[in-house]
Specification:
Layout: E1 7-12, E2 15-20, E3 24-29, E4 34-42, E5 48-51, E6 54-59, E7 73-80, E8 83-90, E9 96-102, E10 111-117, E11 123-130, E12 135-141, E13 147-154, E14 159-165, E15 171-178, E16 183-188, E17 202-203, H1 210-221, H2 226-229, E18 235-245, E19 251-256, H3 264-273, E20 281-283, E21 286-288, E22 290-301
Antiparallel strand pairs: 1-2, 2-3, 3-4, 4-22, 5-6, 6-7, 7-8, 8-9, 9-10, 10-11, 11-12, 12-13, 13-14, 14-15, 15-16, 17-20, 18-19, 18-22, 20-21
C-alpha cells in the first residue's frame, strides 16, 4: 500500500472540502452548528486492554482488530507528555515487530521514524512522518537486506515517486505522479530491463471517478446533521470502521470498531454500505483483496 496521499482544495457553494485523493476527505457544512467529517484509509484497527497505565491493543495478521486469544500482533502504548510511545510485538513469540511515536493510539499520526522488523530481527521497512498522517520517505527491504521498494513524497507539491526492485537490485517498476499530465504513471520491467507493456506492479483500490466521484458520493449520502439531531455536546466524535474491498471491487466485511454515540456509528456504517464497487487493488498485474480501515470524525462546534 502506498503510504502517501495527495491533497487539493475546492469550493462548492456553501460547502468547503479538503480532499485527500481517494483516501481522505473533510466536509464542512456552513450552518449554525457545524459538523466536520474526516474520512481516511489506514490499515490498522484496534482491540483494547489496560495494564498498569499501558494501553494494549491486539491485531490479526493484516493489522485488523483481534481478540487477545487470536492476535497475531499486539501493541503497547505508553503515554509520554502528549505523545504515545508505540512498541508492537509478534504475539506468539513476543519478538519486536515495530517501534514508533504517535500523536494517538490508532497508528495514524506518527512523529519521526517508524521501523518494522522481520521475525529474524532484520529491518523490514522504515519511514519518516511529519505527524500529519503522511509519510515523506519510505523504504522496504527484502529479508536479505536488499532494497525492495522506495517512496519519496513532497508535502509541498504533493508529488510522489515510488520505485520497486527485484532482489537482484534491478528495477522492477516505477510509479509516480506526473504533475504536468495530472495523472499517475506506472511502468514495469522484467529482470532484463525490458518494458512490460500494460503491466501494473502495484496499485491501491480506488473509488470510481477518483476525487470528483468521491466528493460527489459524500455530498449525496453523508448526513451532516446526525450529531446535532441527537443533541450532542460540542466535541469530536470519531468512528473507526474496518472493511475489505474484494477482487471484484465489492465492499465487504464492514465493521464499526467503536461507537462515540449520537447516531455517529450508524451514520458511518450507512454511508459505507452505500458505496458502489471500487476499482480493485492490483499487485503483479492481478486484482487482489484490499484491507483497509476508514475513519469518519464528526467535529461539532457551537459557532
Amino acid at each position: 500500500m502506498h503510504p502517501f496521499s495527495k491533497v487539493a482544495d475546492c469550493e462548492l457553494g456553501k460547502l468547503k472540502l479538503l480532499m485527500y485523493e481517494v483516501t481522505n476527505c473533510d466536509l464542512i457544512q456552513n450552518k449554525s452548528m457545524k459538523s466536520l467529517f474526516t474520512f481516511f484509509l489506514i490499515v490498522t484497527v484496534f482491540s483494547v486492554s489496560a495494564q498498569d497505565g499501558v494501553i494494549v491493543k491486539y491485531y490479526d495478521s493484516i493489522l485488523f482488530s483481534s481478540s487477545k486469544e487470536k492476535a497475531y500482533y499486539y501493541t503497547k502504548f505508553i503515554k509520554e507528555d502528549s505523545l504515545y510511545k508505540s512498541t508492537t510485538y509478534y504475539a506468539d513469540s513476543n519478538k519486536l515487530y515495530s517501534k514508533a511515536i504517535y500523536k494517538d493510539t490508532f497508528h495514524i499520526k506518527a512523529i519521526g521514524s517508524v521501523v518494522t522488523y522481520y521475525r529474524s530481527g532484520k529491518i523490514k521497512d522504515s519511514c519518516v512522518s511529519e505527524g500529519t498522517g503522511e509519510y515523506t520517505f519510505y523504504v522496504e527491504y527484502y529479508e536479505s537486506g536488499k532494497v525492495k521498494d522506495t517512496s519519496n513524497y513532497d508535502s509541498t507539491t504533493k508529488e510522489y515517486d515510488t520505485k520497486y526492485y527485484y532482489e537482484s537490485g534491478k528495477l522492477q517498476g516505477h510509479c509516480f505522479w506526473d504533475n504536468k499530465a495530472k495523472k499517475i504513471v506506472d511502468v514495469s520491467f522484467d529482470e532484463s530491463g525490458k518494458l512490460i507493456e500494460g503491466y501494473i506492479h502495484k496499485r491501491e483500490a480506488s473509488f470510481p471517478g477518483g476525487r470528483i466521484g468521491w466528493k460527489e458520493f459524500l455530498i449525496r449520502h453523508l448526513n451532516s446533521n446526525v450529531p446535532g439531531k441527537h443533541k450532542s455536546p460540542v466535541g469530536r466524535y470519531s468512528v473507526y470502521i474496518s472493511l475489505s474491498i474484494g477482487k471484484d471491487g465489492k465492499v465487504n466485511d464492514i465493521l464499526a470498531e467503536n461507537d462515540p454515540g449520537y447516531g455517529t456509528k450508524e451514520e458511518a456504517i450507512r454511508v459505507i454500505k452505500k458505496s458502489p464497487k471500487w476499482d480493485p487493488a492490483i499487485e503483479n498485474n492481478i486484482p487482489i483483496a484490499y484491507h483497509a480501515r476508514q475513519s469518519i470524525t464528526f467535529v461539532v462546534s457551537d459557532n
